[in-house]
Structures
1.
Amino acid sequence: MTDHALQSPSCPDALVALSFFSGAMGLDLGMAQGGIHARLACEVDNTCRQSIAANFPHLPLIGDISQYSAAQIRAAAGMSPSQEIDVVFGGPPCQAFSTAGARRGLDDARGNVFLCFIDRIADLKPRYVVIENVRGLLSMSYPYVPPQLRSQPELMASPRPVRGGALALILERLRDSGYVLSFELYNAANFGAAQIRERVVIIGKRRDSDSTCKVSYLTPTHDEQGRFGLPQWRTFADAVATIPTTENEQHFLPIPPQRLRFYELLKPGQYWKDLPPELWSEAMGKKLHLGGGKTGFYPWALS
């Protein structure tokens, strides 16, 4: 990626967008490819901040979202207090909702950052909101009482955790902030990414005076077998085929030798379960006993 890849064009009609939980700017790059260029990034991870600063030195970068008011965010982005924001997008921390985690959800400090994000959205009032998160968000249990039952004191006194309660609360907060929503579990491979990556995507449109407005669902651009007249899923080899190689330069974090030896035992398309069983405990450590399929551990790219 280059600095100009995400920079907002000089056209006065360019969409105004703000990025939160920016990571290494993967979501930002996808939005930029769709013509939506972030005017500000927000990230706390030091390694990601270094990556953002190196690749996009002219992009304003702030830290912990909970430490910034809406007015401070606007100022950091070089915006006036009344300037319209077209899009706010981001992927709040996945760990609090991941099926591989302890599933404390919104009781976890990282989960609470999700609610802080919604508070900032309510204050900034963008025309559109795009939020992505792990599929575990769909089933995350959390004490939640539907609005129509909140008149019952016994339910409100000690609400029970219900499956999907965290998502229900998030959607309710967004709707109360004035947004019409769609949400769905999408596979990134169906949209041209060289990775099988399922993510919940919430898209919100500010209601304004149009009470009948709706938010469309996304239409896939690729198919695993190339059906429906669509191209087949892209592979990792497709994605990196045109990347130039530069000698004597490292633009990546090296894989530790103790981990690299496990990768060397795998073939394209394999992951940790394809290692010899006697090595599982050593390779995975405490992660071996986590819930879920753990397919993200030691994946070896498809050729």
2.
Amino acid sequence: MNKSRYCLFAAISLIGVAILSFCPSHHEAQSPFVNAEPRSAYYAIAFYNLENLFDTIHDEVYAEVNGQRKKIEDKNDYEYLPDGANQWGTMKYQAKLKNMSETLARLATDEESRVKLPLGPAIIGVSEIENRRVLEDLVAQPALKDRGLKIIHEDGPDRRGVECAFLYNPKLFKYDHHVLRPYVNPEGDSHRATRGFLVASGKIADEEVHCIVCHWPSRMSVSLYREVAGRQVRAIKDSLLRENPNAKIFIMGDMNDDPDDKSMAQALGARRTPDECDDHDLFNPWWNVLRRAGVGTLKYNGNWNLFDQIVFTGNLLNRSEAPTKLSFYRTEVFSRDFLIQQEGKNKGYPKRTHAGGVWLNGYSDHLPTIIYLRKQVN
């Protein structure tokens, strides 16, 4: 495509992104999975910060030492034990599992979903989970057990045990392999080791995809630490594209920064408009969701932030009426009344598990995000 035609396409695409992201109509597809004319299959990828999904058992941190797995310290999970600050016993843990599973089950499936898909997302990135055990308990819940969801997880070095993982539907995502890439602290301080970047590789709609789930350093740390995360994830993306220039890459997570913050816009290089993106650049569709529509995923001091983002490579930006390759379709911040505090001083905020030391039997201080994809069916 020459430069002038590319610019014209980019301008039309930008208008299309705005319409697709903010249009109030939720049911463009005539049927849940394949529409009539042209026939297109739809897929979803989601992310959800589960806000401290801890079990009630004390855990330990292990590491490979001289080729052997050895305990190196106790996890700082004491507040999520029965005798801890949150009095985290079986009843609260089971309630948390129920709430999280019912929310995950509704992603891309309920009547309010922008595209209603009977099988839900192909892959769901999650953060703030303690270990594989809580994921096994989660997918066994009544709301999810019939989905047959599989787990991708690796133990990480975070001292609290806060980790990332994937859940995936093997009918939609054909898993190949995964790897946990470490976050390299810029100061080389092993005592500040934190969660790394979990990379899951496989196929959606017979096309090679790589999904990277992250939970970048918190805002208790200065921006530098998140910028370092952005550069490191960008390097992972570039290395994957060197192996296969046609691969499609999704980067998702709780970035602890908004789309226009330095870690996202500069260090990671996730761009605001399609006309800024070549096939190997990253496009961030959430920039205008926050700054133009005022929609976010968490609230602080009365203002919305959008830390929970899913960005992707520009080779997903084909917006023809019947894309022959897997292509970006639209976004959704999954906001439902049951996920929002309906009364009290935190009215309008996401309904948390705890607030002010009080157990609310809520969900998370974050809302889930979803991107929808489509591909022509022959």
